[in-house]
Amino acid sequence: MLDLKHIPAGALLGLIITALFLFTAIFAPLLAPYGGGQIVGGVWEPMNAEHWLGTDNLGRDLLSRMIYGARITIFIAVLATALSFGMGAILGFTAAVVGGWFDTIMSRFVDLLMSIPTLIFGLVVLSVLPSTVVTLILVMGILDSTRVYRLSRAVAADINVMDFVEAAKLRGEGMGWIIFREILPNALSPLISELGLRFIYAVLFLSALSFLGLGVQPPSADWGGMVKENKEGIVFGISAALIPAAAIAALAISVNLVADWILNRTTSLKGGRG
Amino acid sequence: MGGSPILRMISQRIALGGGLLLAVSALIFAGTQILPGDVAQSILGQSATPESLANLREELGLNQPAIVRYFVWLGGVMTGDLGTALTTRQDIATTLLPRLWNTLFLAFWAAIVSVPLAILLGLLAVRYRNGPIDKAISGFALASTSLPEFFIGYLLIFFFAVKMQWFPSISTVYDGMPFLEKLRAIVLPATVLVLVVLAHMMRMTRAAILNVMQSAYIETAELKGLGALDIIRKHAFPNAIAPIVNVVMLNLAFLVVGVVVVEVIFVYPGMGQYLVDHVAKRDVPVVQAVGLIFAAVYISLNIIADIAAILANPRLRHPK
Fold first, then answer.
1. What is the pTM of this model?
2. In this protein, which residues make up the domain named ABC transmembrane type-1 (chain A) (predicted)?
3. Which one, out of A136, A146, A234, B203, has a CA that is 20 to 30 A from the CA of A55?
4. What does the domain layout of chain B look like in residue ranges?
């Protein structure tokens, strides 16, 4: 099914870089030359043979911190995306299949949530919640599930009226069967490229929160938090803060390239249905 | 008599927006009540003494049920009383107003630059569809939707404020500051905002015009032998105005939110920075007030987008 020769150059580059980031995140402790919180030199040392990316605002090795940061950033973003997808898709499918009051209440509530900018509502909620990784994942996942809900509901509403679903209903299958065995497999392809976009959004959202000081709390830091730690150096011409910021951008762009390619592939596979 | 159905639609839309805003106020209020414990505990932390807890509860009115507190708060908001900040003891409304103006000032200039630029680039992309200009524009769009604001922001500061020293790295503005100096102070933050919304706005403009370009009357114009620019100018653009206005308004709403991060990057004394500072300090009344204002601006721009779409649609202007 996957023909590597026909992957466009952009998507291939995206795949390779995404895979590299994932590899770094998984094997962080093996790859990092120093510990994430270990002070190994002076403050903001420039790049040199010993510290490839220099040191940060407290004299920690920037490369090691970037590697551990990759782990934290990707870990939180993956879990938040998984939560938003699981919740959004199941609720969206259920709303489409059940209809009636459940659909009405859920859909109006999602409309209401989406009428407040996500970042603003996230900040409102985080002003009373404890700043832990679990809270972050829950807040990001739940707020983002509104978008997945809308898409899944729309896709499932299309599938729900097809003959094979009618047949399944007539032979008396339960709701779980209809949702997971009939609708889910047929709704997968439009949802998968959305998965990439939601992941990018989760990375950017997490980075923004940490940059504002409301995400991952020190001493551990994701890339957004590292930008915050090193931002004071910018005015002295020290570029340490730009490195984690560029890493966020590189991750987002490469996942975007892959998602774009999958989107184009699936729309062409769908043929006339557009 | 063309006006009446339009007026009816517009007033319906505004009423709907009002209702939505009311619901949003309830949601924002509820958002600060979702803890199993109470707000006082989370503000003061684990080490709080029972006395200070009781005092804070008294002050926040936590001894009353949430629904009563909501209506007291809502009544205050309606009469322009946003309450008092817990941390500074200052009246929120008087602190907020100059900051709101600063935020709108920044957003206004970002909009003035980005809107015409986005429409122009969108038109160019359609004119030279699938050519190098179109490719470059969509490549730029892909990059700019993936770049975090602070990456663009610090990159600009690094090169234009620190290396070249053309602009200040911290965008201080104050009352009575000369207008031109104020403009110079916001060049960099406004540029970040422009770059952030430009791509999206441009892409949607391109899509809106392309959509129109596929209609039968465009084909007729082509067959008449009109040049591509003439077709876009005379036939496509007027019909694409409604979706474009819609796109512009949606992106302005987006811009108002993007302001939060940009203000923190440039230490700009606006509403976004005020919000972020007080989220960290767990100053709930301030967070509720600023959150509500952000949501109100966002919803208003969305309503204006709808109204503009209604007004720009000739079929609705001239009902049968």
1. 0.87
2. 70-259
3. A136
4. 3-36+82-317
